[in-house]
Design goal:
CATH superfamily: 2,3-Dihydroxybiphenyl 1,2-Dioxygenase, domain 1
Shape: globular
Order of helices and strands: EHEHEEEHEEEE
Number of domains: 1
Helix content: 10-25%
Structural class: alpha+beta
Radius of gyration: 15 Å
Distance between the termini: 27 Å
CATH topology: 2,3-Dihydroxybiphenyl 1,2-Dioxygenase, domain 1
CATH class: Alpha Beta
Strand content: 35-45%
């Protein structure tokens, strides 16, 4: 089981604004930040729910190319809202909300490309 994941982005403040807007419909936001002064290198933002960050973003070089990150939604309407919010925040479409039966019959997901080229997905596994 994963506890958290970290990705590097070209502009951490731009990425923070994008992720805050795109993930707000899923109840995800910045719950922790670590300043450049504290790290001695670059600042980080931890996004998550409550007090638990599980998606960290930091400015730096991309080491392995774009990543695919999928976040769970507990309702299909939240997948729809994620897609709409992400597109409004500057994402590129990579697959609008809908059933992806190739994964399983109730896999309802939406895919966008963030400003750094990462494939971001919201998915609901529950029936309609």
């Amino acid at each position: 089981m994963l506890d958290h994941i970290s990705i590097t982005v070209a502009d951490v403040e731009k990425a923070k604004a994008f992720y805050e807007a795109a993930l707000k419909p899923l109840g995800v936001g910045v719950v922790m930040s670590v300043s450049a002064e504290e790290t001695g290198t670059t600042g980080y933002y931890g996004l998550g729910e409550g007090q638990k960050p599980y998606l960290w973003i930091a400015e730096g070089p991309t080491h392995s190319g774009p990543m695919h990150i999928a976040l769970a939604a507990d309702a299909r309407a939240k997948v729809d809202a994620f897609y709409k919010a992400a597109m409004a925040a500057g994402a590129k479409d990579n697959g609008p909300p809908g059933i992806r039966a190739q994964y399983h019959p109730t896999y309802y997901g939406a895919f966008v490309i963030d400003p750094d080229g990462h494939n971001l997905e919201a998915v609901c596994h529950l029936p309609g």
